[in-house]
Specification:
The protein contains six helices and nine strands; from the N terminus they run βαβαβαβαβαβββαβ. By secondary structure, it is of the alpha/beta class.
Length: 236
């Protein structure tokens, strides 16, 4: 669509179930897409599939503070109209099995890395007083779930952090949108030890379409949040 034509978009978590579909939609809409993630080979496959320049591939390991710092320094030199954070980690364990290291890893990936990257991207947006930042805290950033103490703690923190940053930006047209997705059928569940009905979940492509739609917000307003849930598990 014309609203996205030549818009500079950074997608973090670009090779994930939602991210890969999102890159396809954005690229087809005429956006100039930078793709970022942990696995270089998958990033290269994605760039080849959509004709994305190798200069627009950015590798980062969110669990490694040094890698995040280098990534932040790189994006600070660039300018983006839209930043979409589709990366994250979900550790699902009962409290008896949950370790401090699980909490630390959850905060590093879901909160601290986001803080550093947003801090690096914002100055260029503030210069023009325009921009869009989309995070995906998921439904567990709004309501708790048994066994998700680490996940909920980090996602609640992400939401609170971004809401506070939003207060600082109210005199600009920089939009901050939170996406609260219910269960999405994606590789996220491959290593989660829970009995789930993935066939009843939201399809990753449909979740990507919702986020793509959010990239085309009206000039006169802002979509502060979007909730998308499966029919059989409407938590809110």
């Amino acid at each position: 669509m014309d609203l996205l034509n030549n818009k500079k978009v950074l997608v973090l978590g670009a090779t994930g179930g939602i991210g890969a579909h999102l890159v396809k939609l954005l690229n087809a809409s005429g956006a100039i897409v930078w793709i970022a993630g942990r696995q270089l080979n998958k990033l290269q496959e994605l760039s080849n599939a959509h004709g994305i320049s190798s200069a627009q591939i950015l590798q980062v390991e969110l669990a490694d503070p040094n890698s995040v710092q280098l990534f932040a320094e790189k994006v600070k030199t660039l300018s983006f109209d839209i930043f979409i954070n589709a990366a994250g980690i979900g550790i699902i364990k009962p409290i008896d099995d949950l370790q401090v290291s699980d909490m630390q890893l959850s905060y590093q990936i879901n909160v601290l890395s986001t803080f550093e990257i947003v801090k690096a991207i914002l100055p260029k947006m503030v210069e023009t007083k325009k921009g869009l930042i989309i995070n995906i805290p998921g439904i567990l950033g709004k309501i708790p779930m048994s066994g998700a103490a680490a996940y909920c703690a980090s996602k609640y923190a992400l939401v609170g952090m971004m809401q506070s940053i939003r207060e600082e930006l109210k005199r600009t047209e920089i939009r901050i949108t939170q996406v609260y997705l219910g269960g999405v059928d994606s590789p996220f569940w491959d290593n989660i030890n829970l009995r789930v009905q993935r066939e009843k979940m939201i399809q990753a492509e449909e979740a990507a379409k919702a986020i793509w739609f959010l990239c085309q917000q009206p000039s006169s307003g802002v979509v502060s949040e979007l909730v998308l849930q499966p029919f059989n598990h409407q938590a809110i």
